[in-house]
From TrEMBL:
Coiled coil: none annotated. Residues 71-267 form the AMP-dependent synthetase/ligase domain. InterPro entries: AMP-dep_synth/lig_dom, ANL_N_sf. One of its GO terms (molecular function) is ligase activity. This is Phenylacetate-coenzyme A ligase. PANTHER family: BLR5969 PROTEIN. Gene3D superfamilies: N-terminal domain of ligase-like. Keywords: Ligase. The keyword Glycosyltransferase does not apply.
Length: 410
């Protein structure tokens, strides 16, 4: 979409949004004439959306609403999201083009949360739209603990597993505990689809090594639905006809140079039930202007939450960087990091008895990343208890950073 087309789409969304009392009080009365005009529109924060929930940002009549969702409320009061049938159709049809290539007749096991969450429903609808059969396994219920997920994968000849990337590691671990080989004993499984947390190159390689199949990613949030998805080449492309994505500096004053990392701010380009206008996502991202074989001209990297970025001096360590460090270790599946004064302390579950952290490896990682590192290998079950199979893999969200025992400021 050209810049002039984007500006025209933004003005249509602004006109649509003025039907909301919240937006009417903060948007210009007329159309924006330039990008400078657009950048004068104040940001919306998650706290704004939280305060306006459940109805304050709705821009359509009540009888036009078709579906309601909420955030998990792990960090405060829930954030509401409403969708019309038009919104859902737009998402479903676009999402069905995900690079994984959902096919008629295949079987997709969805192990995302369903209760009030969005991603499970969107993947479910997209797979069915493409003609696939869906197994709605959910992820926060005792009905389908990980051993049953493993059993369903085998008994139903599942071809695609859709789940959090950490959950995909846990499913493999559970299969191995049952004496199965993830690469050998699930012959019909052809792909894994991830969402809900950043998928770094290191985590993607780990999953593809464990399972022996390609892994596809997408990016979105409760408030917006999906905003980007992998093509067949497994590159994450933004939905440029549906969202304007600004990547701003740490002060949120101006866009960073192309290829640099900043905070992602999004604006809806279609008249959704609850459009987002200059919404601070809280995510760190990087946009690469590189043509892809699929025809897209931009690739997006979502590197983790800004609030979860660890700063050691002037150096940021986001989830991508932390996982790049872990990927060099002999054990890589389950880890947690604590910021210390002048460095990082990793606790990693030992995968094999012979795994050791050699001093030369630690020195090389310190030289590469410019900070002091310590790594402690601990017994399996230290970070994720395997004794209760029903509880294993049931936590609401992955936790990688331990600030409670930190000796350094966040």
């Amino acid at each position: 979409m050209s810049a002039s087309s984007q500006l025209a789409a933004i003005n249509q969304v602004l006109e649509h949004a003025r039907s909301s009392d919240f937006y009417r009080g903060r948007l210009p009365e007329g159309p924006v004439q330039s990008w400078d005009d657009f950048r004068r529109i104040p940001f919306i924060t998650k706290e704004d959306v939280r305060r306006q929930s459940p109805h304050g940002l709705v821009c359509v009549p009540g009888d036009a609403l078709s579906q309601y969702h909420e955030s998990s409320a792990t960090t405060g009061e829930p954030v509401s999201a409403w969708y019309t049938n038009r919104d859902l159709s737009e998402i479903r049809e676009r999402f069905a083009q995900w690079g994984v290539g959902f096919r008629g007749g295949e079987r997709v096991l969805v192990r995302f949360p369903y209760a009030l969450s969005t991603i499970g429903h969107f993947v479910h609808a997209a797979a069915q739209h493409a003609g696939a059969c869906v197994i709605p396994a959910d992820s926060r219920t005792t009905v389908t603990p990980l051993p049953r997920v493993v059993e369903l994968l085998r008994r139903l000849d599942i071809t695609v597993l859709a789940t959090l990337s950490l959950s995909a590691v846990m499913v493999a671990e559970t299969a191995e505990m049952a004496g199965l080989d993830p690469r050998r004993d699930f012959p019909r499984l052809r792909a894994i689809c991830c969402a809900g947390e950043p998928l770094s190159p290191s985590r993607r390689r780990l999953l593809e090594e464990i399972w022996g199949i390609p892994v596809y990613d997408n990016y979105g949030m409760t408030e917006t639905g999906p905003q980007a998805m992998d093509c067949q080449a497994r590159r994450l492309h933004p939905w440029q006809d549906q969202f304007l994505m600004e990547i701003l500096d740490d002060r949120l004053e101006q866009e960073v140079a192309p290829g640099e990392t900043g905070e992602l701010v999004v604006t809806s380009l279609t008249p959704r039930a609850m459009p987002m206008i200059r919404y601070q996502t809280g995510d760190r991202g990087r946009r690469l202007e590189e043509p892809c074989a699929c025809g897209e001209d931009a690739t997006l990297e979502i590197r983790g939450r800004a609030a979860d970025t660890v700063w050691i001096g002037e150096r940021p360590f986001d989830q991508w960087t932390l996982e790049a460090i872990v990927s060099e270790l002999p054990s890589r599946r389950f880890w947690r990091v604590t910021p210390t004064k002048g460095g990082l302390r990793f606790v990693v579950e030992r995968e094999r008895d012979e795994d050791r952290i050699e001093p030369d490896l630690l020195w090389r990682l310190e030289q590469t990343h410019g900070t002091r590192l310590s790594v402690e290998l601990v017994p399996k079950g230290t970070l994720y208890d395997r004794r209760e199979q029903i509880a294993f893999g049931m936590s609401a969200k992955p936790i990688y950073i331990d600030r409670e025992h930190s000796g350094a400021p966040g």
